């Protein structure tokens, strides 16, 4: 196997024997084969689209299948076996439709005719030679192809959440198919690939906007909300991942059943949505980020619903309590079908639940764009008067590898006259710190999940308009942490917007060649994190307090 798509990559720039994430070589090969088959499907999707033929099933399938291959989503070989077969069935169906419309589909590419083997073992063998590096192209072009593929997986994740809430956009599917099919071409230059890669950022911005509209349209705009970290006596369900629709279903289906619903990881910001927070049994937040789930799920005395990434191998002690849904999967773990959470609810009723109320700390969330812009005048006045000196967006993924304490220390060291904006699961390094406020504006503002990077961008754009300067001239610095491919997509969105001087850590992606990295440094001044002291000093020196 060879996989290098996340930050947890093994030594030497790739996972070769087994994934650090727990992905086994058979699943890695099947994921590669699925991507290979999607490229073949994409060839026809592009041809069809050029002739005015689109297929909703193909579009949705492409998104679901890509999302399934994102880090910590699906580890179940059987599910990939089915996905690969479905991909080829859809390809043939689309081909027939195109032919029937009088257009000849003589695409001369082996991938366009790919026939999967009939068994999982056979497909695994086929997949072993189908990885991203199988393409015989220049190393820098391959690096940009990998960046695009990983960005696309992030795009697919967000498109998936939006599409199940009924929000889709043709341009997202069109780009996805074009980019996937372009990976089969050998005559595109480095410049062509740079354009395709940056376009992924543009498309991701659109898809995050779509998801923002889907979430706020259905659940209202988040409002600042105090979330308990303690527990309430009684039966319990813990919902992890990112999907608001799944959470809503759990809340609806547990109504009147004396079960308290808790959030885990990236679900924390859902407490701010009016249409979710109205449920009296939607109690609080339990635990921290994904990499602590072995400890936290084992200690949770109820059922756990995993709506998306990041899933780790469920331990024996709690594996009967875990339920996956949507594209998530682990072999032998119960999977929720048809949005019916009865199995998880029954398990929660069997388990002891919490035997007593335990008061705990609280944290604030819900500072998405609407809430922040609602106090824009106050914020602008505070900047003008000098009471707010600088904004830091300390955001991104959390992870298991060492080095991430940088972000905790960084936030601790941010001077008292600065505001920290945060989003995504990296916040759990500092989410419960009491940073106080500046004239009533909290110094730690949780904007939301990783996809709420859209909200952060809107806040930055509104500030740049108010101060009549470019975003890069604002007293705002981005200190980001990445782990999986959604973070790649978000980073590409920031680059597409021309945002410079981003600090990225804890390590740089191993799929960037020195030349591609050099290109990013030259064009965007992107830099690796160093130490909190050094980075803070450099940032604040560049943005001195106005006299
Ligand atoms: Fe390794 Fe990350 Fe790939 Fe898992 S997803 S196999 S940890 S590079
Ligand atoms: Fe976290 Fe997995 Fe990336 Fe949504 S839950 S940010 S790592």
Summarize the structure.
The chain is of the alpha/beta class.
Structure description:
This protein has 547 residues and is of the alpha/beta class. The protein has three domains: 25-218, Substrate Binding Domain Of Dnak, Chain:A, Domain 2, CATH 1.20.1270.20; 225-350, Rossmann fold (3-Layer(aba) Sandwich); 369-539, Rossmann fold, CATH 3.40.50. Helix content is 45%, strand content 12%. The protein has 18 helices and 16 strands. It has helices at residues 25-50, 56-68, 77-100, 120-127, 139-164, 170-182, 190-219, 244-253, 274-277, 293-299, 342-350, 369-374, 376-385, 405-413, 453-467, 485-496, 514-524, 532-542; strands at 225-228, 235-240, 259-263, 282-285, 303-306, 322-324, 334-335, 362-365, 390-396, 418-423, 437-438, 441-442, 444-448, 476-481, 503-505, 527-528. The strands form four sheets. A six-stranded parallel β-sheet has the order 4-3-2-5-6-7, covered by helices on one side. A six-stranded parallel β-sheet has the order 13-10-9-14-15-16. The termini are far apart. The chain binds iron/sulfur cluster and FE4-S3 cluster. FE4-S3 cluster binds at residues 242, 265-266, 290, 309-310, 397-398, 424-425, 449-450, 483-484, 486-487.
Low-pLDDT sequence parts? none
Instruction: Tell me how many strands there are.
Output: 16
- Distinct helical segment count: 18
> Taking all residues together, what is the mean pLDDT?
96
The radius of gyration over CA amounts to 23 Å
Give the total of domains. Answer: 3
What is the beta-strand fraction?
Answer: 5-15%
**CATH topology term of the largest domain:** Substrate Binding Domain Of Dnak, Chain:A, Domain 2
Tell me the distance between the termini.
58 Å
Q: Name the shape in a single word.
A: globular
